[in-house]
Structures are given as C-alpha cells and as structure tokens.
Request: fold
Amino acid sequence: MSKKKGLSLEEKRSRMMEIFFETKDVFQLKDIEKIAPKSKGITPMSVKDVLQSLVDDNMVDTERVGTSNYYWAFPSKALHARKCRLEELKRQHEEGKQRKIALQQAVDKAKVGREINEEREALLKELVTLKGQRDQMKAELEKYKECDPELVEEIRKANITAKEAVSRWTDLKGPISHPTCTRTFISHNH
Reply:
C-alpha cells in the first residue's frame, strides 16, 4: 500500500499563485477555499495559511472593502517585482565589482616596494636579528630592575612615609595598654 503524500508549502504556494494568474480575477477567502481544493489539490484546512503566507510575502495583494477581504495577484505585478529584484541584484553586483577593483588596486599599491629581492631578504634577516637582540636586552634589563635608581628612590620615599605613619600612631604620652593586648607600648621620641 502506498501512502498519499501531501503537498509541501512551496507546492501549495505555487499552485495557489496559478489560480490567481490563470483567472486574473479578485477573490474573497471563501471563494479561494472552494476553488483551491478542487482545482489545485490544496487541502481546505491549509488554504487560509497558504494565502496568508503569500500576502505576507507581498505576492498577493489584499484589501478590506466593507466587511469583506479581497485577494488578487496579477502576472504583471509578479513580472514587475522580478524586474525590480533583478535591477537591485545588478546594482549590488556592480557595486561588488567596483569594490573588488578598489581592493585589488589597494593590494597592488601595498605590494610596491615589497618585491622579493636580495636587499629585502637581507633587511628582513637583519630585522629578525635586531628584534632578537632587543628581546635579550629587555630580559637582561628585567634582571637588574630591582637595582634601578628610580625604583630604589621610590622605595626610600615609601619607607619614610611608613616611618612617619608609625610615629604618628605610636607617638603617645606614656604607656598604653589595650584590654585585648598583653603588651604595653611605650612612646620613643627620636
């Protein structure tokens, strides 16, 4: 037994467009719901959804007149839409070609002076060597960073500031004791 396979959404859309193009008429939803199942094999349950998808994609026009909705699509509109799309694609293609030419010119301009020759090869090797030497010198400089006079001066200043802060906190008159501490602090004047 073979099972009857239903139509895909695209087949239903295509067949519904055939109804409009063949008749070149204006329909109400109830008219399409009668015609589509009989002439094109579209299931009655899916007619409304298929028609709405065509309206959403601007393939079928719709207008409300009074209490009724009317639907239509003429071959000339489809042709016009295709022509507009073709013009847009041609314009995009032309822009793409111009962009490609501009990029190719930029590449060619960037290549000037970068031709492979002995002088360039020698300069590139020298550049690599000099970069290696620079990295070695940076590593050696990093070893001696702690002896840097500026760093030593910063440490001295920080020590002076720390000593002053300690003096402020401990420059008290007489011994003090704190209930949680077991030591007694005595002020020393320098």
User: Anything to note?
Assistant: The two ends are 111 Å apart (CA to CA). The domain at 9-75 is CATH 1.10.10.10 (Arc Repressor Mutant, subunit A). The CA atoms of residues 2 and 8 lie 18 Å apart. The mean pLDDT is 83.
